[in-house]
Every structure is written in structure tokens, then in C-alpha cells.
Amino acid sequence: MQNVNDKHIKDIFMKDSIIILCGGGPAPGMNTVVCSVAKTFLSNGYRVIGLHGGYSGLFSKNPRTEDLDFFKADAYFNRGGSYLQMSRFKPTDKDFEENFNLALFQENNIKLLVTVGGDDTASTANRIAKFLEAKKYPIRNIHVPKTIDNDLPLPNNTPTFGFNSAKDEGAHLARTVYEDARTSGNWLIISAMGRSAGHLALGIGEATHCPMTIIPEMFNNTAITLDKIVRLALSAIIKRNILGIPYGTVVVAEGVFHDLDPQEIKNAGVSMTYDEHGHPELGKISKAVLFNDILEKEFKKIGLKVKTRPVEIGYDVRCQDPIAYDLTYCSELAMGAYELFAKGETGCMVYVDANGESHPLYLKDLQGADGKIPPRRVNICGGTAQNYYSHICHYVTEADYEAARKYVSNPEDYDFKKILAW
Length: 422
What we know:
Blueprint: H1 4-14, E1 17-22, H2 30-43, E2 47-51, E3 65-67, H3 70-76, H4 93-98, H5 102-107, E4 110-117, H6 119-135, E5 140-145, H7 163-184, E6 187-192, H8 199-207, E7 212-214, H9 226-242, E8 248-253, H10 255-258, H11 262-267, H12 287-302, E9 308-313, H13 324-342, E10 348-352, E11 358-362, H14 363-366, H15 383-391, H16 401-404, H17 416-420
Helix pairs in contact: 2-3, 2-13, 7-8
């Protein structure tokens, strides 16, 4: 006679299942997506499995998995962080050929792989889509776009989830920092996360009326150099001195430092470690401290008396609770993933339009020549950026040259538009 518990376990494993993994770094709304996916598929009769360790779990003989039931999903859907442990593991071609854990899918009757992540995770999802198709495995995959960097190519300037929550908290921190600058009569140098694009830095700068925000996309007509970054910051400081405003903030996207020639960082005398290729390990240091140190040396060099302090905005905005926008948006993305699955879609990223309708964005159509999903950068010529730089920012123009000579002998070198060749 069959044991009741054995029959229950057998029934569970016979059910059609889906599996969810989270890749890259955390962003507000990770739990909202995962738990909303779980709730949606559970209500439609599916078993839902959570895979810990990101993509590493797919290429491991002993992956760490657990079933996600309603009570677990209901307890975590509105929390920050990620209940499913994440990783930045990137499978090699050898991993695909030798280590892909097909048994995990076969033994658990998994019909769909849901991946949640940014550009790297999406690029790997694209590789998995091609792999599953080539092997003719009966497994579909749908990607949910997340990143506080907002750099995945969604249509109509639609944000990635996590961006608005991170911007909200980043702006809250930057507002407090700006008030400190105003109260103390100092300048605060803020570095904001954004490896490939300046969306978060620009969003924080615009929201807090920061007099200068420096992002990689500004250098559309000229190469990024440390000298130009420094002169842009000084342009704002000099202009505010002319206006009788002896304080302010400068927001710098970390991406400007990643785009620099490594030798420039070394020549600036900044103390840091280097990898085996001789490249500075920028991920290990505070970009705010780095830039502040360089600025202080420049102040002494030109004889400008300014007191600055560095502030880093980064890890403190990744695991906060999502704001209402992301709670709603992430729920819609999760339900959209189910809608696409029900229509037979695979190898795609879910996109939800302004009306809440879900659409597939096929990963193969988004890839670049290298097979990776290229980052979406700030449209520096668009209204958001141009209006901010035209009306909110403070910087030296030709009309300020005479007044600026009180602070520097060569004011034309600090002319904002000349520095950028705008």
C-alpha cells in the first residue's frame, strides 16, 4: 500500500514547475518580482522553485533549491534585498557543454526558467535561450529586467525595476548632503553608482538641484579625461563663488572613472591596488574619496580655498524596501511573465507598457555584435539632460570670464561648453 506522504511527494514532482533565479547585484523589487511570479504561477496550478546562487546553480551538480509557497511569497514580496541568494557567475562555453544541469529540469518537470537581472544577466539569458533552442530541450526562458543603473534597452524610456526606488533613496541622501553643504558653507562631492550609464547620477542631481552632475554621456563630443572632470567640478564652484553662493554639491557617476585611461588614475597619485594586468581595481575604492583627493590637490595648485567632503551613494540604495512605484511595476512584470508564458513565448525579456500590457522583447533582437545586450545610456541630447544642464546647473560661461579672474587666471579653461565641446 502506498504511503500517503509518498503519494503527496510524487504528486508535487509530477506537477508542471517553473524555476526562478536572480543574477548580478540586488535592486529594490527583487523580492517583489520573485514572490509575485510565485503567487501568479501558484494560483495557476504550477509548482514554483527558487534557485539560489544565480546562474551558478544551473551549472552545479548540487544546486540549492527550495519550493516557494504562498506563505513565503506573501511574507517577502514587499521587502528589500533578495530572498534568493544572488551571484555574478558567468558560465563559460565549457560550462554549457559539460555542466548544464539538465537533470534538475527533468526530475522536477520544469517548463520555464525565469531569470531576474541586469545587462549581464540578460546577456547570459540570451546565451541560455540559444543553448536550449540548439539542444531542442523543452524548456522556455523569460527574463525580467532589473538594475538600479536603468541601463537595459526598454522601449519608450521605460525604466528597469529598482531604478526609481534607488533614485528616491539616493535623492533623499543627496538632499540631506546638500543641506549640510548649505548649512556649513562647504562643498560635498557625491559619487553615485552607474557603471555604464549616468541615469542614477543624473536623476539624483536633477531631483536635488545639484549645480553640477558629471556623467559619461556628457563626453559625446570629446574624450573623457581626469583633467576635464576636474575642470567641470571647478566650473560649478567658480560660478557659485561669482554668484555669492559658497557651497554646493557635485554628483559624479562612477562610470566616468571606469572610462578613464588607467594611467591617468595612476598619474594622479591616488593610492590603490592593481590587478594582474596593471589596471586599477576601481571597484574596491570609493570614487567619491578618489575624486575628492584629486580635487583637493587641484585647489592647492590654483590657490582656491574650498573645503570639500566625499560622500558615496551606492550599496546603501540597493537593498532598501521598494517604493510604491516598484511594488506595482514589479508585480506587473511578474504577471506579464506569466502572460507571455501562457502565449508560448520564450527567449525574451518582459516589457510592460504604460497601460500595463505585457510584450516580449526577444533577446536575440537586442544583442550587439558580440552577442551581449548593450547598455542603454542617457540621451544627452534629450530634453531631460539638456534642460537640466541649461537651467539648473551652474558653470562658467564666456560672460563670466571677467568676474572669474578673481579666482583663476585662465577662466576660459573652465568654460563648461568649451570643456565638453558642446
